[in-house]
Write a structure and sequence with these properties.
This is Flagellar assembly regulator FliX. By secondary structure, the protein is mostly helical. The protein has five helices and two strands, in the order E-E-H-H-H-H-H. It has helices at about 15-20, 35-60, 65-90, 95-105, 115-140; strands at about 5, 10. Strand 1 and strand 2 (about 10) form a beta hairpin. The longest helix has 27 residues, at about 65-90. The radius of gyration is 34 Å and the shape is rod-shaped.
Length: about 140
């Protein structure tokens, strides 16, 4: 026996190296499907399962995302109130700013678990509603 390298002694080829070259483990074929077709079917099924798992994870939102969205909504309402204030101080009627404020106020608001953030958002919503009501009363008087 002659040692030729790190694999050990050289010997005559047997069925074992052939099985290793073909991928190691092989199921006996039954029916008309070949080993390659079975492997392809398994790969495509696992790809679908992986994609479904990713889609499910994307649908799950955590509390930080809800909080971030609530803060963004509150900041947007404050920006609209500032636009209205600047329009009124500039002598304009503020109709466009009122329309944007009403649109932003109608956006759905998520229920927030943090009581402090909920209280601040309630105050912002109330202030925006008051400004819209004041504008409506002014329009009705005129």
């Amino acid at each position: 026996m002659k040692v030729t390298g790190p694999l050990g002694a050289a010997s005559t080829p047997t069925a074992r190296p052939a099985a290793r070259a073909a991928g190691g483990f092989a199921l006996p074929t039954t029916g008309g499907a070949t080993g390659a077709a079975q492997a392809g079917a398994t790969t495509s099924a696992s790809g679908v399962a992986g994609a479904a798992a990713l889609m499910a994870l994307q649908g799950v939102e955590d509390s930080t995302e809800r909080r971030r969205r609530a803060i963004r909504r509150g900041s947007g309402l404050l920006d609209r109130l500032d636009e209205l204030k600047l329009a009124l101080l500039g002598g304009q009627d503020g109709g466009a700013a009122l329309n944007r404020l009403a649109r932003d106020l109608r956006e759905q608001r998520d229920e927030e678990a943090e009581p402090g953030l909920t209280a601040v958002l309630d105050q912002i919503d109330l202030r925006a509603s008051v400004e819209l009501a004041k504008a409506e009363m002014s329009r009705n008087r005129a």
